[in-house]
Amino acid sequence: MRTSAVASGVLAALLLLLVAVQWSPLLSFDRSVAEALHRSALAHPGFTRVNRALSDGAWDPWTMRTLGAGAAVLLWWRRERRAALWVVGTLLFAVGLEQGLKALVGRDRPRWSDPVDSAQYAAFPSGHALTATVACGLLLWVLALHWRAGWRGWGTLAGAAVVSVLGVGWTRVYLGVHWPSDVLEGWLLGWCCVVAAVLGYRRGGRRSGKRGEDGADGPGSSGSRMGETK
Question: How do residues 85-122 score in pLDDT, each as one tens digit?
């Protein structure tokens, strides 16, 4: 998992640099894809309405954050409070990262004479893509640690999470409110956040367990159980 976190972080940093220096091949690619999808959105209004409903409803960032908060509540109810706070902290960090980069880069959103949707603030990175990746990733992590072994619905839930993460990225570009590289950056940063959070939690759990064995803090906490791979 450490390799995955490093790779996604490096790719995200590289993409950030290319957008910041306005690398021509990337901008040309973004423009060509966005224009093609915008033409399709205008030609298929019914499909466009479906995309808007998904983007602004089921896959809206606040919907995703609510799912993440639900995972935190579940952990708190199970008295795994360190894990619950870790999930909430990761979600808040993702929001800060998104807003900070938007302010830093200040990239304009696509502009159309005949828009099919609208969005505010800067484009890079996509908050929808980043939030969906973080929320779905954390939710799957929490559920996997407790129920994956004996729950037949795990594959369905994992598939729904993947569809949601990929689908929300598609809707943002299809609706003409993001460039493709905005969405890609959101995915990369979101995945990096999830993996870094899991690794950091496991490391903290191992340290807590060691202190417990040395007699410093008593028996290992329930949080250390969350950190173990099953």
Answer: 989 999 999 999 999 999 999 999 999 999 999 998 99
Q: Please, how many CA atoms are within 13 Å of residue 142, restricted to the half-sphere of its CB?
A: 27
Answer yes or no: is pLDDT of 11 > 90.
Answer: yes
Name which of 92, 84, 94 is nearest 130 in CA terms: 94
Q: Output the six-digit token pair for 40.
A: 């399709």
* Contact indicator for 76, 84 with CB cutoff of 8 Å: yes
Give Cα 14 to chain centroid, integer Å. 18
Contact 19, 124 (CB under 8 A): yes
Please give the sequence-ordered ranges of beta strands (E in DSSP) within the chain, or none if there are none.
none
If one counts every other C-beta atom within 10 angstroms of the C-beta of residue 102, the result is: 18
Rounded distance between C-alpha atoms, residue 84 and residue 87, angstroms = 5
Cis peptide before 110 (omega within 30 of 0): no
pTM over 0.70: yes
